[in-house]
């Protein structure tokens, strides 16, 4: 709940989360979405705020906080999921948990971008949907996966 998150607020995690989201934005900007294509994916401000809140919430129960996170970044379109990048929140820390962030293309754009995944000239930047999924896996325990759909 929100009050609990306020009690566990860590200013260091806040700063790290901002840096992590900058790296995510850069990875999205270089995302390979087809065999010979690159297109810039745009993360709307609302999505960025939701992802930030979710990352901080999932990290607050971890021994190293967000510093112990490995982040796998994926973009989903239709039934396919494209791997965009793997990011260590703090490469100097042994990871304690893995987060898989699955972002979605804005479905209203799908008919316009079907050709994106074929060969040809690059398209304009694409906007991501505000819906996403986060899968958390603890690397130090045998607990079940936690899947959050937002």
Automatic annotation (TrEMBL):
Q: Which GO terms describe its molecular function?
A: 14-3-3 protein binding
Xref: InterPro entries: RTP801-like, RTP801-like_C_sf
Transmembrane stretches, by residue range?
Answer: none
Q: Which Pfam families match?
A: RTP801_C (PF07809)
Keywords linked to the UniProt accession? Apoptosis, Cytoplasm, Mitochondrion
Homology family: Belongs to the DDIT4 family.
Q: What is its main location?
A: cytoplasm
- What Gene Ontology terms for biological process does this UniProt record contain? apoptotic process; negative regulation of TOR signaling; response to hypoxia
Query: Where can this protein be found?
Result: Cytoplasm; Mitochondrion
* Protein name (Swiss-Prot/TrEMBL): DNA damage-inducible transcript 4 protein
GO CC, sorted alphabetically, is: mitochondrion
């Amino acid at each position: 709940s929100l009050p609990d998150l306020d009690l566990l607020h860590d200013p260091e995690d806040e700063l790290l989360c901002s840096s992590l989201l900058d790296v995510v934005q850069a990875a999205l900007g270089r995302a390979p979405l087809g065999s010979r294509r690159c297109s810039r994916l745009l993360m709307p401000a609302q999505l960025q705020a939701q992802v930030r809140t979710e990352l901080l919430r999932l990290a607050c129960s971890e021994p190293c906080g967000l510093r112990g996170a490995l982040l796998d970044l994926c973009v989903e379109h239709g039934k396919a999921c494209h791997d965009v990048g793997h990011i260590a929140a703090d490469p100097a820390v042994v990871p304690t948990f893995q987060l898989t962030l699955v972002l979605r293309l804005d479905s209203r754009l799908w008919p316009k971008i079907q050709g994106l995944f074929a060969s040809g000239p690059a398209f304009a930047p694409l906007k991501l949907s505000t819906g996403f999924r986060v899968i958390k896996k603890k690397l130090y325990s045998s607990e079940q996966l936690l899947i959050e759909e937002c």
